[in-house]
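Extended Data, panel c. Modelled sequence:
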Amino acid sequence: MSCVALVVVLAQGISQSSTARAFPEEDAGSLAFGEKTVLVYENRTGEENYQFVLRLARFRPDIFLEWESYSHQGTIHLRKKAVSEAKKITVGGLFEAGVDIDSKDVMTNWLSDQMFSQLIQDGGVTIWLNKHRIKMKLVGEETRELTVDKTRVDVPVVRIEDNQRGTWIVHKAKGNPVLIEYQTPHYHMRLTRISTSKSNNLRWVRQLPPVK
């Protein structure tokens, strides 16, 4: 994936609001994603900063999405088995320009249900990150501020550290363990804005594949 500056113009103009609020108790731990939800990440590699946009065409039981950077775009299908049971994850590895990716056993931008459950229950899990076997350890809980539908909210998260000098911030929600932030000494990605509006438009997906 090319690391270039990106100016993304979303059709609905996801903008920040200066009004902060805490997550209501009944919503704690649950960012509600669905069809046409848009996620905007800010990434940094070395001295280069760029934005990365995901648009969900279907969310659960599998995940089908389209993505775009400044110069590339594509689609990714994370199959049900991957969403549920995957022991592998990649950061950026499935985002190949012009390629429609069908992933049977590798996750990206979300932990699998099994990864997340084991972390919460046991305090740690061993997985594959790209081609490396890593050990992840749960080190705490906190909140992170995101802009969701133009409102700033405090989202409950868990902090995870791995034995390769990586730090992971993951939404604390069994049904939606989305990656909020990932940082190594040489790379940083952070989810900053979300829109769940049903009026969001997909740009390239014209027909959904069957659930697999």
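The mean pLDDT is 86. This feature is highlighted in the accompanying rendering.
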